[in-house]
Structure formats: C-alpha cells, structure tokens
Write a structure and sequence with these properties.
5 helices; 35% helix; alpha+beta
C-alpha cells in the first residue's frame, strides 16, 4: 500500500470529476493562496463561507469523503489515529497543531499537480495571459479599433 500520491496521480485525481468536487478544489485553492500553502483549517472554512464556532467542521467531513473516494481507485494507506480511526487528511496535507488551531499545509506533489493543471485559483495579470502571436501592432489607449 502506498501512503503518498505522486504528482502524476494527483493530476489524474484533480482532473477526474467523479473524484474531485468543486468544494475540494476550492479548499485546495484557498490553502494555496496562503503563504507557504498552509493555513488553519478554520481559516479555510471561513474563506469558503462556513460560519459558526467550528467553520472547519464541514471541511473535515469533506476531506474524509474525498479521501474515501480516492481510495476506491488508488491503494492508499491512511495513518491510524486509533483503532478504526484514521487521519484521512494526511494524503492531502502535512498537519500539526499550533496552540488551539490545526494547520494544513498542501503536500508538494499536490501543489505541483495544481500548478500543472492550472487549478491553483490564481488569476494572472493581463500581461501574463498568453496570446497567440500576431503581426498586428496593438496600441494601448486607442478609443477605436483599427
């Protein structure tokens, strides 16, 4: 059994709409947006619109469901927490406690796959958008088209 997924496996998973749902991508994109690709689980929950005393709780559920969907196609060995309890999050994240908060940090192969699939959620500046080569001269600020 494998305990780590490769970048190539993550690419397959991210592009498989049966495995990866919008909420999963939104969670990854939220964490990706933080410095070092790490954030408190509650910060991610708040970014995704969850409210209340435990904005991370719906994410914890989704992480478990997502991990279980992945194990139907990939041979994953989850880290045991206690008898019959597992750390489902550890296929996606490195995790640790800081005070009363729990930090999720995207694992490197997942970060690389998000980048390669252009699923980071980052919006390029106009000058970074690739355009086809053109023989036309473009002039900035013209009020009419040539």
């Amino acid at each position: 059994m494998a305990s780590e997924l490769t970048k190539e496996q993550w690419i397959e998973i991210l592009l498989n709409s049966e495995l990866t749902k919008e909420v999963d991508l939104a969670m990854f994109q939220a964490i990706y947006s933080f410095d070092g690709h790490k954030a408190y689980a509650s910060q991610v929950g708040i970014l995704l619109g969850y409210k209340g005393k435990s904005p991370h709780a719906p994410l914890n559920s989704e992480v478990g469901l997502y991990a279980k969907r992945i194990t139907k196609l990939y041979d994953i060995e989850f880290t045991k927490r206690t008898e019959k309890k597992y750390k489902f999050w550890d296929i996606f994240f490195n995790g640790w406690e800081e005070g009363r908060y729990f930090i999720w940090e995207l694992k490197s192969p997942l970060v690389e796959a998000l980048r390669e699939c252009k699923l980071t959620g980052e919006q390029p500046y106009p000058e970074e958008i690739e355009t086809p080569e053109s023989t036309e001269n473009l002039s900035e600020g013209l009020k009419r088209q040539l």
